[in-house]
Amino acid sequence: KLTSREFHPENTIVDVDGVKIGDGSMTMMAGPCSIESLDQIRECARIAKAGGATILRGGAFKPRTSPYAFQGLEEEGLKYIRQAADEFDMKVITEVMDEAHIDMIAQYSDILQIGARNMQNFKLLQAVGKTGKPIGLKRGISGTIDEWLNAAEYIAAQGNFNVIFIERGIRTYETATRNTLDLSAVPLIKKLSHFPIIVDPSHGVGIWDLVPSMARAGIAAGADGLIVEIHPDPINAWSDGPQSLNEKTYMRMMEEVHIIEKAM
Ligand code: PEP
Ligand code: MN
Predict the structure, then answer these.
(1) Structural domain includes residue 7
(2) Over the stretch 23-65, which tens digit does the pLDDT of each residue have?
(3) How close is the Cα of 7 to the center of ligand 2, in Å?
(4) Enclosing domain of residue 237
(5) Is 33 left (phi over 0), alpha (psi -120 to 50) or beta?
(6) Nearest in space to 88 (alpha carbons), one of 111, 59, 56, 60
(7) Atom of ligand 1 nearest to the CA of 115
(8) Predicted TM-score (pTM) of this structure
(9) N or C: which end of the chain has fewer CB within 10 A?
(10) Residue 38 neighbours by CB distance under 10 Å
(11) Is residue 95 one of the residues assigned to a domain?
(12) Average pLDDT over residues 79-86
């Protein structure tokens, strides 16, 4: 398999227009769950960058459980996140839900994110694979490691070796946290595959005050980076406020994470 460590013993470094993921340093991605306005995403970019993030996250096409929930600003949101990222010299990661939107989203975003709900949307995987762009591949809500590796294989089979695994927790019998963050996936993926893996503690636990602990643990487990949800005013966030960090908590978390990173 193209994704396997056997096929490619060296770590693959994904180069996002100069920002290297998997080169031994930690890559930080931060931003809101949803892009809400130009002001909101600019403020998120400012905070993200101050804490050391080089990649700005933010959803414009949102996979919401309820069809009545906010679905995202779509292309308008993509314009805002691109503008905010450029202003703060950052790269962009945003989700692609539909094959039909790939070319449009690729004009604004440096990394295409495949959401957990689409990990096994094989046609979508093939289509994003064809773009050659870096792909952030979230683990499916009930995706096994083998299924996740095979999802990456769909992308690699298109000749695209720019895959970034994102562990974001899986559904288990436990309901006290939103998901169960599987940190054993980090050393396991690193053993089985040459592609980098980052950890999303925000969706992993769903509760903001648990996020910093799991972020530190992710780096300690050997992750190549983190993707974290932040918001200037989490209580009023349009989505995922309960798991979003405010500026103060994010900055404190980043100080702690940098200590772990240096110790690695
Ligand atoms: C997100 O990153 O906002 C998101 C929807 O994540 P996931 O696909 O992991 O649920
Ligand atoms: Mn979210």
Answers:
(1) no
(2) 999 999 999 999 999 999 999 999 999 999 999 999 999 999 9
(3) 34
(4) 14-263
(5) alpha
(6) 56
(7) 8
(8) 0.98
(9) C
(10) 16
(11) yes
(12) 99
